[in-house]
Amino acid sequence: MPRRCRRLTGSTLAVAASLGVTLLASAPVTAQAVPPAASAPAALGQHLVQAAHPVGAASSVTDYTSNNWDGYFATAPSHHRDFTAVSATWTQAAVKCTSTKAASAGFWVGLDGWWNDEVEQGGSEARCLNGVPHYNVWWEMFPFNSIQDSFAIHAGDTIHASVTYHHTSKMFDIVVQDRTSGQTLTKDTRCQPGQHGCPRSSAEIISEDIGHTGGGLFPLPDYGTEAYTTASVTNTHGHTGTLSSSAWQLGHVTEVTDGVTKQTTSALAQNGTSFTTTWKHQ
Predict the structure, then answer these.
(1) What is the CATH number of the domain that holds 202?
(2) Would 8 be classed as within a structural domain?
(3) Distance between CA atoms of 190 and 194, rounded to whole angstroms?
(4) pTM recorded for the entire structure
(5) Host domain of residue 65
(6) Per residue in 246-272, pLDDT tens?
(7) Does some domain include residue 270?
(8) What ranges make up the beta strands (E) of 210-248?
């Protein structure tokens, strides 16, 4: 059963922002509601992702729904230590803050998270606080820590993010570059306690809706369309390819919450390295 966990800590998104820490997440639901898994630490919360139907044959593209994910993920039959790297580039989309309600969206690359309760990831975030848009980059090793905010960015900045596992050093290298400003977030870390050995069973590029401690989702801010390019995945055998490589299976994820389609994911471009996600509903 595919799973991943993340929740916002603190009483409000604004409180978390003042502390420089943001947790992305919510409780994904698919065509059939799923009971929550065993409770995670109270400070972190938990949520669940489940496929709408079984994984397809090798080199296929299979459609899935999630309560808060939108994008693509690569997987392989073993679901265990299949991938070592994932990367992509995007231009940070501008969000429309139409009310004073807190709203947030995350854009990221990562390893793990679909088939399990661990994720190693980094990316950018766009959020509305008191009607004003804010943008930043972040990294996370869930569930060991919360998502860690780094430097501020601007809408329109070109972001390149990668997560790479190095077999020799057993280190994860999380890098998020703002190629417009020249700033770079780099975090080198080993697999942490509670991550069950970081199995690296999936590699994904995702636009994510954000959840709060009450168990629901913050409104998803209107970000228009986010375009991902230069998508690349490397498996444990050293093969590097596009999302459409026949070396792995591909999941196409649409966010559907309580029967409402909140984001959609386009088909891959012919080169297999590009796609878009598009906001539909808050």
Answers:
(1) 2.60.120.700
(2) no
(3) 12
(4) 0.81
(5) 13-279
(6) 999 999 999 998 899 999 999 999 899
(7) yes
(8) 225-235, 240-241
